[in-house]
What we know:
Shape: elongated
Oligomer: single chain
CATH architecture: 3-Layer(aba) Sandwich
Amino acid sequence: MVSALQRHHNETLIAQPAKQWQAFYTRNGARFFKDRHWLFQENMFAKELEPRQTTATWRLLETGCGAGNTLFPLVEEWKDKNAHFYACDFAKAAIQLIQVITSHDKLDLALK
């Protein structure tokens, strides 16, 4: 049985996701999740997405990008392809983390 306090806590999490994710990334930074370099080894979906024609322009939008743990391995894998990456997240702190990382790596990403 769920207590009234637990129910209130759950409702708050659901009602204010941006606030919750902002608090999460403010507290944890980029330390919580690991980069997903295994995407192209284990995920057949990612292999199917891989651009095969260098003349094609690929655009990838990652919603809920967090600190870029999926985005950066994709950028690394497709760096020689004609690909454009877009990322968005509820948490401004997550976007700020990605902006710091991309400024050091000289990556050009559209972030919101």
